[in-house]
Amino acid sequence: TLAALAIPEVMGYTKIAGMPVITGLYTILLPLLVFALLGSSRHLVVGADSATAAIMAAGLAGLAASGSSQYVALAGMLAILTAAMLLLARLARLGFLADFLSRTVLIGFLTGVGIQVGCEQVAGMLGVTGEKGGPLTQLVGALGEIGSANTDTVLVSVGVLAFLVLGPRLSKAVPWALLAVVGAIAASKGLDLAAHGVATLGTVPSGLPSLGWPSVSSSDLPELIGTAASIFIVVLAQSAATSRAYAAKFGDRFDENVDLVGLSAASLSAGVSGTFVVNGSPTKTAMVDS
Q1: Which of 40, 115, 217, 279 could form a disulfide with 255 if both were Cys (CB 3.0 to 4.6 A apart)?
Q2: Quick one: how far is CA 275 from the chain centroid?
Q3: Which segments of the chain are extended strands (E)?
Q4: What SS3 class is residue 21?
Q5: d(CA 167, CA 47)
Q6: Predicted TM-score of the model (pTM)
Q7: Integer Rg of the chain from CA
Q8: Hey, which residues does 46 pair with through a beta bridge?
Q9: Rounded Cα–Cα distance for residues 209 and 272 (Å)
Q10: Distance CA 143, CA 120 (A)
Q11: How far apart (Å, rounded) are the C-alpha atoms in residues 170 and 82?
């Protein structure tokens, strides 16, 4: 179940991050395994995350073209810098800092990220080109082209949203998100939606990630450090909050400082395996719990 839902989820986060789609799959290979081995939380699932993907995309926007080899290298170095900050935080025993970031602040931040991501996806849900720029610019641009929206794309979008929003009200025992994924795949194949103008991923490259240090100019490092610091704070707060919530629910013990080691190693493995920074994922963790 986790694989069936996490695979399309990380593909979506890859689009937000501006990375090649295959790199999203890489986030649930080595990073997920490394955290499972080194982290203390029994429940936290690590992988690509919408919040850190959005911060990364904003930080790298002016440094390289999205999806280019230089962009991928910068994303890898950003993951390594974040890993270094997480490790330094562990050495300084700074896990307690997560206690000062209240649940209200975290929920507010994640809600803002959700709104930002939603604004950026409206063009895709309508099947229009949209505009580049900030979230509001993209939203206004997409709504301005609503007259030229692709009917089949809109029907697919509405159908998936109906499954996700209305389904749980009918029965909480049915895996509606999983049905939406399977149904969309079946509809794409059976109805040949690509021939009707519905955008599809096409062929996803095969093969495992190649390991190596990302090639980045030293002049780019100062630009990356600020973005890495922002991601570090989000990873620290979101992962600790999720681990703490599930530890309390099941009466488990967890150590925030040990989790920092696992998160650091996970982001390091992401950086050297050609993908982008990872985070403790509340959605994936909830999938496993349910």
Answers
A1: 40
A2: 12
A3: 46-47, 279-280
A4: helix
A5: 26
A6: 0.81
A7: 19
A8: 280
A9: 9
A10: 11
A11: 42
